[in-house]
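Chain X:
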Amino acid sequence: FFFEEKAELLEELKQLSWREQERQADFDKESDALQRQLQQLEDSLKAAKKLAANQTVELQAQNEALALELQANRRSTEVLRHESAALQEQVASKHRDAEALRKQLREVEDASLSTEAALRSDMEKLKLQSAAAGQELQDAIK
């Protein structure tokens, strides 16, 4: 009876050992699968970090290029503002010069009209004097 019980216990122990080995094998398989999954996730994370770092570098380079372009555009805009202000001043100066020339022209026209009127008056006086002198000459001849 003792041997039978011992044999049964031994058989039960073997079955327990076999089940434990199966559980251990299943655990090892699961553990290996989880390790592979973890490794894949770590690789994906590394790749994502690398991609993010590369994109960050690219974005920084683009930002720097855009900042330089913006500075150049601002300088260009400032130069254009100064040039525009200078041109506006030149236009205003030309308008002032043109107005001064118009004023001088009016003065010359007015002076010319005055001179013309004076010359006509003098010519009329000369005509009258000439007519009077001619009349005196005719009267003297008669």
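Chain Y:
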Amino acid sequence: MPLPILILPILRPSCNIKKEIITRNVHLSEIPGVSPRPIIEGENYWLQCDIQNVAPLQNVIANCYKEQTLKRQSVSGSLVLTPPRLVLEYGAPASANCSTDIIPKMMGWEASQGSVDPTSGVQQLTWTVKSITEWDIKPLCFIIVDDPRFQQKTFLPVTIYKIPDKVSISLLNDTRLIIEGEIYWLQCDIQNVAPVQNVIVNWYKEQTLLKRDNVTSEENTKEPQNKTSKLQIRPNRTDDGAQYRCEAELELGAEGLQPPPRPAEPLIISVAYMPQFQNHTEILLDSGEMITLNCTVKANPPAVYNWIPAHLKPRPVITSSSLGLGNYTCTASNQYGNDTKVFTIRKKEIEDVYEHHQLFSASGDSCTLEISPPRVVVGFGEPVSVSCVASRPVRVLGWESAIGALHTQHDLTVQWQVDSLIDWIEEPICYGVFFTAPRQCEEKLNLVLYKTPDSISISLVNHTGPMVEGREYQLLCEVQNIAPVQYLTLRWYRGQTEVYNHTFSELSPATPVQVSSTLLITPGRVEHGAPYRCEATLELGPEGPQPPPMVKSEPLDIAVHYPPDLLSPEQEVIELGDGEVITLNCTAVGNPPPLYRWSTPTLLESDESHPLLSAPSLGIYTCMASNILGKSSKQFIIKPRSKGKTDGSLDI
């Protein structure tokens, strides 16, 4: 029986429309009982295109023309869903319409909720549910026609979402006071959300977006799950009292209403940090009046103060009119470290000169002072000695420094010398006051105090055990207590091959810090057993030690799991003579090592877990090599050897 397909363009003719045979199987006509005769100019009419005995139905495209102008194009027999996709909140009502351009025998919907029985004589049918409660619902619209080869069906994609019950943020595995410069992990817990693969976690510090994290799930489930997201932070003192927060956002596509993000209550962190002075030296005039030594500095917990000379009271501010000339050293300390500031009280005549030096000093090419060597690189705790030479008569020549400050009158050379340099903020300045113009001049010593790291280590982030081929993993290299970090280059190696290097030139602290670098890898099977390591190198320039100081981490050997691959996967056809036995080889490479299963002509399945099998008879042998990640199969066809053919003979 021919299968009619209706292609119904609306025409408003201004000329006569003729019945016409397009091909032997395609006929254009007025729809009986719909189009009256004669056709009247300006009114609407339907034309029907009958296409008979064609297959496959879903590949038919009907084009309707008026003269040479295409008026409508239709894909025959296709099912159209309106809307084409549903995005709904759990428990909400659902509705979708299914339509077709043919006249089917039956039309219906199959679904775990709201099925619609097959209905005859319709070209559209609506699926309706009052309250959607099936997470993995897959509504199916179908039509039945006379020829079963041309049945049509289509699934309606439905996404059911649920906003999380709760979102919370916490400090992972650590409730102590956070220490400046160390690495910590914050965790955002999202409870009872679906679908989890559509969840985006936004991390903020105050109002600044730090990270957008796509939450992934190895489970292919559409039901609500609990999920977490993590953020690595390395706080400093400016972060004390800062608010961190996370929010869970469902990205559901253009078809769905976007529910508002669900925020967590903010986490306010308290950062512990040592005292650190902005200026480590201060010059004061001895004018015979009250002198105030103000050593106040911020620290958490608050600093305690000690002075040298020791007879001064342990408090941040000393005010007295009886302080003598010389240096007064204040040390501010708490349990996380200490810092020192030196107050120098000078005679008025020298200080008057020095004050003018500060306000009106010259430097650079016009300065007649020369520092030798001009740049010094010193290891922490090592001795240092630098000379400053004036090229013309000088009234006062000296060094301003937290340690080793001194001056001389009339001598053309002055030496700055420290037996053990341990002041990280040391900035020695040579100054001169001359009898002739320019009368004041200064040169700053380019001093680099360095320290090699206490340790360097490499580890996997948020993962233990073997890796899986093709998945992404993160390696973390941590360097403890190194300075100055802006000279550090951290290199990543796989075996002897450098794969990445990380510099820290954007950082500027002079004191030792802890830094880290991450490496994203997607291991393949060839990397099974490969050692990864990182190396920290302080590249301090030609004045520094040669070769540059370098510390290596212990290697991290990675294990990679991957599915079996047969050494020879192609089907083999083997000829077997009478009385012969042949060995079939199904060896595969995989990690974990694969197990083998054979099916033979005599046994449906063999328990032999071995890649080699003796085949004594004709037939089809199938081998399956499998492990937890996948499987591969191979077929051997054993057939009798042709008569008159022996080993080594050729078929002509």
